Predict the structure.
Amino acid sequence: MASSVSKTEPHIEHHVAHHFDTSEQEFNAAKLGMWVFLVQEVLFFGGLFVAYAFFKSLYPEMFIEAHKQLSWKMGALNTCFLIFSSFTMVMGVREAQLNRRRSSIRYLMATFCLATAFMVVKYFEYSAKIHHGYLPAEWFFGEGTNQTLPIFFGLYFALTGLHGLHVLVGMGLIAWLIYRSMKGEFYEEFYTPLEMVGLYWHLVDLIWIFLFPLLYLVG
Amino acid sequence: MTELNYLNAKKGLMSWLFTLDHKRIGVMYLIFICIAFSLGGLFAVLLRLELIAPGQTFFTAKQYNQLFTLHGAVMTFLFIIPSIPASLGNFFLPVMLGAKDVAFPKLNLASLYIYVLGACFCLYSMIAGAADTGWTFYTPYSSTTDTSVISMTMGAFILGFSSILTGVNFIATVHMMRAKGMGWFRMPLFIWSLYATAIIQVLATPVLGITLLLLFLEKVIKIGIFDPVLGGDPVLFQHFFWFYSHPAVYIMILPAMGIMSELVTTFCKKNIFGYKPIAFSSIAIAIISFLVWGHHMFVSGQSDYAASIFSFLTFLVAIPSGVKVFNWLSTMYKGSIDLKSPFLYFLSFMFLFCIGGFTGIYLATLSVDVHLHDTYFVVAHFHYVMMGGTVMAFFGGLHYWWPKMFGRMYNEAAARIACLLVFVGFNMVFFTQFILGAKGMPRRYYDYLDQFQPLHAFSTVGTWVLGAGFMVMGVYLIKSLINGEKASANPWGGITLEWQTSSPPITENFAHHVEVTHDPYDYEAVQRKGV
């Protein structure tokens, strides 16, 4: 590491909070807390996945008919965006650990742009659904033979809407990380917020990886 | 000059509103929780008043429905779920671990404000046409009634996040913040029970969150998931709801069981009998709690096969609960028992929780449940567990730790009288309801047959005795804050860590670095050391 010291960019020294003995304890506590929070997120979405499974077993033909209204190409594009954004997120954390601040910021910005691209595609998908009347319950005026089609679109909007909300929250958090990185707060001995948002972002990505086949490729 | 402690270290309202000190946050929680308890209690007195005679006496049928809904919702979401973990737990978890604070102090303060926000939604619901669905919000009634179900469910949704954040905080604190020498099996049993509670809070509460969110969507955009007209299923709501709300029952009782372990050792001056069985039984209860939700749906059209499995799993809960009760009893054996008021609450818990627990076995039995389902027998059963169990332990814990929290003693004679009034009043209210339920009195009805009148009237009078007990308690506790005798650092002779610091503790909890050298209740080791 000695040779890289000269290349190190300037940073703000991190101080361990008063109730911790070491920075390692502080980091491990934050990491454990984040993992527990993510478990909570899984159960939060779990309720919707159970509802999905329940109605899928109740009306299998309806699900097959309904999924034809979703564009698997758009979904696949969005899947690529999110998987690639997980990669740039990891690199953002990695570069900060190596004291390469500018590079870390670039990766974070790339992550932010990919998330934006995801939301833009989502916007076009939603507009198409709304335009053709594939909406929950009484707003439904789309074409279809199956009477229970609105249930599928209720689930579709609940699942992707809640996921989209998580993407938006993630974008806010990444913007906040970029701001803090620019101030020079993260370096090899302190990158806790980067790591925590990274964990969150991977979960958001992972949930989409389940949503994509369940909603778009169900037939 | 008075000594510096967490109460007088900083002055002014702002120093409280922006504090990150877990003790101050615990005290603020305690205040809100006591207000919620008084409010819920007031609703209870009013709804019992309506039941003093058959027919319409004071309120209309709809007002009665709103009263029992508000009583249930306030007591469940605003009082009993946060009661012990958020107030006493927040205050004592770090102290008993020998830590300076919880792992995430800012998150701790955030959870308090989220609680306040959720409470505001619930209060709004009370003013704007209170919900009349019962605290369980069953569909399809909840999605069709014109009362303010939305604000009440949103309140409960928000309160859930407060509970989750407390759980996350406690899990991280227990794992990461233990003092030197405090291995997992040197933790006080109160900590074990809070740890088990935190696991349930984190795993079960999000499911309630999504359920209430779906109910919200059902009401606002008619998503149709719970509506049979659109192809949905109302029983799915019951499954979702109880997947949270049955584990939630153990969020309520587990911390109470933790307090019991603390009380029995301190007031018997004896090492706990069966430390590990008690610790593991908390975890066992937490695990089994996720597998029993179907016992709320024995008559909701669930298959017989599923019902018998749920019945069997429900019986299993009796084993870890029994392990605890027998261990507490064995701890008392040959102990030097000191009948101070916290221990009187301990004894009340033992009597009432056993009755509540055994009647739970009746209700878990399929054939018996068909007769008792949705009668006063169920009402009496869960009040024996929740109030006879959790509330008794909460007040036992409050009396036990009061001198530590505020540095003042209360009037012991008054405390004993209050405990007696609460115990007698409680049994007057609820024992009669076992009889009423067995005779077929259905719950949630504002009218009843003439033959039930004497028992109903007796139960209503009981609420007045119970109320008198709580008023006496309120008076002497407030009086102790004003001019109570100064408490020593260790008024009861306890040996867990919280008694080794001053009363009230300093902001950093301990003046010296804490190191643990013996088991939490090892009175012999303490005697050998000559402390």
The radius of gyration of chain B is 23 Å. Chain B has a mean pLDDT of 94. Chain B has one domain: 13-529. The domain at 13-529 of chain B is CATH 1.20.210.10 (Cytochrome C Oxidase; Chain A).
